[in-house]
Amino acid sequence: MVKTDHEVALLRQSALLVSKTLAEVGALIRPGVTTLELDVRAEEFIRDNGGKPGFKGYKGYPNTLCTSVNSQIVHGIPSKTAVLKEGDIVSVDCGVLLNGYYGDSAYTFEVGEVEESTRKLLQVTRECLFLGIKAAIARNRIGDLAFAIQQHAENNHYSVVRELVGHGIGTHMHERPEVPNYGRRGAGVRLQKNMVLCIEPMINKGKREVVEERDGWTIRTRDQQPSAHFELTVAVGEHQADVLSTFSFIEEN
Ligand code: MF3
Ligand code: CO
């Protein structure tokens, strides 16, 4: 599970390409755009930059992005019939393969003006991610990181999705260890410097239960309330995590 410094450098390149791709996509998001248009732009940008889509073909997944709107949590399939409208939120999850190493990050965007209570859900989910990142230091355990995320979500009266988890990343998109967003302090795998983790809280405004849609991919909340998802890739550090992907390209737009 531990990478060499050279591998971390390669993973940083992949993470950087994903980060820039999310910003390219984010710049297109407005009422009236379809999620398939976002997907087309993402694939073109990734290929122009020497990479390949990381999700396309993974277990038969058909697209470059996962685009999950409102009560959809993750793994929404881009479609020309999915037209974004004012007030929606859309989680855009993107994977790339560059020089043999994967990148994987996600951001939940607002479409036009979004209701205050949903904006708060996005804010708290982001905070959950950054609390998880703060705990990604050597000698902590996965449970310490997971507990930090869960506690912040539940203190805000939100619920944590349990069926899907974060993961290690490297020459495969999903490597050990699993990185759940709920857990107990002191439990699980002990973190070591240069483990590279994708931390990706999925936080629901309502109850935690999920259902799979009939397309066989999309996961949504059973109670149809909104869900938020943010994902970054980090290398575990001695004293602080080295954050390999970034939202800075998105947020400076
Ligand atoms: N981004 C997801 C994750 O972080 C993986 C999506 S895989 C695909 O685990 F199957 F949807 F392509
Ligand atoms: Co992931």
Walk me through what this model shows.
- The protein has 253 residues and is an alpha+beta fold.
- It has a single domain, classed as Alpha-Beta Complex (Creatine Amidinohydrolase).
- It is 29% helix and 25% strand.
- The protein is built from five helices and 15 strands.
- It has helices at residues 5-26, 35-48, 116-134, 142-155, 248-251; strands spanning 52-53, 65-69, 72-74, 89-98, 101-110, 159-160, 166-168, 175-179, 196-199, 202-204, 210-212, 219-221, 227-229, 232-235, 242-243.
- The protein has a five-stranded antiparallel beta sheet.
- A hairpin with a 6-residue loop joins strand 11 and strand 12.
- Helix 1 packs across helix 2 and helix 3 (116-134) runs antiparallel to helix 4 (142-155).
- The longest helix is centred in the N-terminal third of the chain and has 22 residues, at 5-26.
- It starts with a helix and ends with a helix.
- The model has no long low-confidence stretch (mean pLDDT 98).
- The protein binds 2-amino-4-trifluoromethylsulfanyl-butyric acid (MF3) and cobalt (II) ion.
- The site of 2-amino-4-trifluoromethylsulfanyl-butyric acid has 13 residues, from strand 4.
- 2-amino-4-trifluoromethylsulfanyl-butyric acid (MF3) is lined by residues 55, 58-59, 61, 66, 75, 93, 95, 104, 167, 198, 200, 231.
